[in-house]
Amino acid sequence: MRIVAVCGMGIGTSVLLKMNAEKVLKTLGIEATVEACDVATARRSAETANIVLTTPELVESLKGLPAEIISIDHFFDLHELNEKLSKALL
Amino acid sequence: MIAFGEGSLAVAVSAVDRDSAIRASGELLVASGRATPDYIDQMLAAVEEFGPYIVIAPGIALAHARPSRSVIETGLSLAVLAEPIEFGSHNDPVRLVFGLAAVDHEGHIEVLAALAERLSDEDFVNSLLNASTNDELGHLLLGETAQ
Question: Torsions phi, psi of B60, nearest 5?
Answer without folding.
Answer: -125, 120
